[in-house]
């Protein structure tokens, strides 16, 4: 399980770094191929929620949002974002706590990290291995 946590942490870092190397525009329409087996949410409610940061300081409208079920979903998205017909930015979003809107990306894809909320407590109860979207209240339970 520690390897899974390391993989998720690494992917989160790569998502943050990756976004600075790709192009994004509000005019880009993102169509993910069925072969990726990812659902791109583009409904107004989801886009609105992903557009605002936690403190309502920034508003950045993404082209879509995915809710990954594993780190491999994020990996497939990043690979496609860099090598597909068009390139687009990807931003990792937990609870939306960022200083300048880094948890969103104009016209790109927001990865809703709260979908990854697995908590595993060691048998000796000395540590907890938590996924990227886990809330502290969940860890304390």
UniProtKB/TrEMBL annotation:
Record has Flavoprotein as a keyword: yes
Pfam families: FAD_binding_4
Cofactor (UniProt): FAD
Alphabetical UniProt keywords: FAD, Flavoprotein, Oxidoreductase, Signal
PROSITE patterns in the cross-refs: FAD_PCMH (PS51387), OX2_COVAL_FAD (PS00862)
Family: Belongs to the oxygen-dependent FAD-linked oxidoreductase family.
Span of the signal peptide: 1-24
Domain of life where this protein originates: Eukaryota
Entry protein name: Cytokinin dehydrogenase 2-like
Organism phylogeny: Eukaryota, Viridiplantae, Streptophyta, Embryophyta, Tracheophyta
Location of the FAD-binding PCMH-type domain: 58-141
SUPFAM superfamilies in alphabetical order: FAD-binding/transporter-associated domain-like
PANTHER family: CYTOKININ DEHYDROGENASE 2, GULONOLACTONE OXIDASE
Keyword Protein transport: no
């Amino acid at each position: 399980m520690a390897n899974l946590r390391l993989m998720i942490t690494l992917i989160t870092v790569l998502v943050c770094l990756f976004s600075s190397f790709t192009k994004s525009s509000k005019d880009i329409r993102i169509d993910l191929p069925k072969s990726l087996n990812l659902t791109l949410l583009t409904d107004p409610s989801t886009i609105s929620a992903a557009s605002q940061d936690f403190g309502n300081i920034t508003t950045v409208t993404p082209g879509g949002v995915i809710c990954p079920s594993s780190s491999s979903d994020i990996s497939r998205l990043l690979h496609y974002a860099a090598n597909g017909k068009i390139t687009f930015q990807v931003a990792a979003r937990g609870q939306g706590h960022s200083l300048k809107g880094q948890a969103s990306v104009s016209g790109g894809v927001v990865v809703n990290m709260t979908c990854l909320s697995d908590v595993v407590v060691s048998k000796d109860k000395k540590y907890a291995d938590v996924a990227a979207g886990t809330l502290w209240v969940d860890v304390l339970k």
